[in-house]
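Margin note from the TA: students keep mixing up input and output lines. Inputs are the sequences; the output is the structure of the whole complex. Example:
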Amino acid sequence: MSDINKISGDKRLRIIKAATKIFSRKGFHKAKVEEIAEEAVVGKGTVYEYFASKKELFLEMILYAHQQYQDSLEQELSRAETFRDGLQKLFQVTMNFMKEHKEMALILLADHPLLGEDIHKVLCQKEQQQLESMSKMLQDVTRRGEIRPVSTHAASLVIFGALYLICGQVVFHEDNQETDFQQLSQEAINIILRGLAPPVKEML
Amino acid sequence: MSDINKISGDKRLRIIKAATKIFSRKGFHKAKVEEIAEEAVVGKGTVYEYFASKKELFLEMILYAHQQYQDSLEQELSRAETFRDGLQKLFQVTMNFMKEHKEMALILLADHPLLGEDIHKVLCQKEQQQLESMSKMLQDVTRRGEIRPVSTHAASLVIFGALYLICGQVVFHEDNQETDFQQLSQEAINIILRGLAPPVKEML
Amino acid sequence: MSDINKISGDKRLRIIKAATKIFSRKGFHKAKVEEIAEEAVVGKGTVYEYFASKKELFLEMILYAHQQYQDSLEQELSRAETFRDGLQKLFQVTMNFMKEHKEMALILLADHPLLGEDIHKVLCQKEQQQLESMSKMLQDVTRRGEIRPVSTHAASLVIFGALYLICGQVVFHEDNQETDFQQLSQEAINIILRGLAPPVKEML
Amino acid sequence: MSDINKISGDKRLRIIKAATKIFSRKGFHKAKVEEIAEEAVVGKGTVYEYFASKKELFLEMILYAHQQYQDSLEQELSRAETFRDGLQKLFQVTMNFMKEHKEMALILLADHPLLGEDIHKVLCQKEQQQLESMSKMLQDVTRRGEIRPVSTHAASLVIFGALYLICGQVVFHEDNQETDFQQLSQEAINIILRGLAPPVKEML
DNA sequence: AATGAATGAGTATTCATTCAT
DNA sequence: AATGAATGAATACTCATTCAT
């Protein structure tokens, strides 16, 4: 039984990983189910044993990738002490993930609303969760006096906006050898932190 | 003679507008050329008289939309006096455009790198142009002492990042009645401007 | 296992036979793949499981028909004792094949160089093979003293020229009830044999 | 008026010549009416002023080419004194025509019965005319005692069969530098003439 | 559970022909 | 008579999905 589960689980994962590879390389429409099956070294029909359709497989693949990202993010954030530290970790982890999963990033960043309502909704939802999670963190941080009181929603948007655009730069543009993205994100963080900094009187 | 041009130009434009409608509603892959032709009230073959392929039509449509956006943006920006004013106009115009062309916005925001190299490249290029144009403006503004000296590249990313994410909120999320995007963008601008504000000593 | 092969082989052959029927009736361009599939009682996609394209199917069909013709020809020729006997068998078998496969003959006789380089080349090659095979036979026959020494190439051309034109008469012209093609070919053979006959001194 | 006719006639001929060029190069199906119009330097619509359809244009083009061939053939044959001389002229003129109109020859030789009943019928008819004309000539020659009495139909088939196959060699095969077609046809003629030669006793 | 042979719905594109000018 | 912009019928081919084994 555990054997069956193992084999079964193994295959499911193998298919998801194969899907990641193929979908990332070719995009949803140009990727062929048969190709994914080959990559996973399973029969074409087997893919349909685990996923109801190509679209569902695509969705599951995205969820899997996103989960991986969130896991590593939470792990890092839990160790952050100051807000600046947290921001830096956020930028760091996100950029690394994007760099490693460049092709997948294309999909996550350039959320494809036209691929289908369902997929789009899930991605939007994930983004909202992230924004809300950031909002909560900002409330804590505000309470702790690390930043001045602002609309945490607006602040979240500024933070993730900068983050996503920088990641876009990392991923989409091939002249990435020249640019120091490390420093770029540092400067963006500086601007944002200053924008959120508590009133100057404290500096006196 | 002018008649011929008019008719001819008319048809090309009619097709582009029809394409905008259909592509926006259904996305590239689900849109059918025949449907676009019907919408434009021309024969299917006529589409191919003006555009070499479905893809070229798609690209031309995007360029047309983008041009419209840039035109209205430039017009507004030319009237802006302070940097804050400019930023507000930028957010204003962009949000309005996105609201009015919701479906097209889906495409512009969620730049589809997987649709094809060529289209992706053009979109990236447009984005880079916008970032650079903002960088230049920031240099002027810095020289005028309106903001402190920062990496204009980083600052541009922060600004457009916030802008795009807010537009995404406007477009993607249907609960937009509740949220006051006007105020949201105002708050984001406040954060950003503070982040870019000249040293506090001036405040003394 | 043999079942699987049988079924598989069956389908391929069924498609080829259907193709023969449809292509012969309508020619390459007017024949529709779907029609061939229907005739073979298989799905349209199945045709493409066995043949990469309409053109390849066409080529395979021709090769199949040609093979059938050659097989029956060789069988007959192996039994021929004199050269006259061989010539008669050649004319006999060829005319019979053409009569039975009238429509296919249209294609084989009227080799379509404009259908595509590849198909044309294969057909030319087959014809050359036949000419060469005849040349060799003529050399043997010459050695045996049955005919006088001539350019075997020229002789082959005369023989096959007459053969093809007679077959053309059989196939292309519908007033074939009136004409006695049996006798016509006999007379042609007589003329040719006389043209190749050894010097008259033997007649003394 | 004569001007109009001239221009008119000019255009018709220009179109036919352009058609010859394009059809020969690409074959019926791949040739485009627009291309022919361009080659003839007339508007696409103008083609339809002179020819009811692409197919009719094709037919007219073939008739025109065939007429040219027959004219030059008759001119040469009228000067021939002996039968051998006539045969040689026939082979000569035909081979030259085929060499000069290689691509057209592809169409004339490889009579395309599948292009359409009408075209096929005309071509068959032309061929029959040629065979009959040869038959008549053979009757004259027989009467003059140049050849022995044979089925003139059979003899015609032998003659044209050899002729067509040799022309096919000239046209279809690109290794035509090596082969001496002049000599090849000479040898074929020798064989045929011997096959038709009067009884040997006359030689005594 | 696993497979892959079979299927057919779905679509971009071409090009002969027309007809208003 | 001459034109070419406009048209839409016509068709090969792909690939997600199914199902018998």
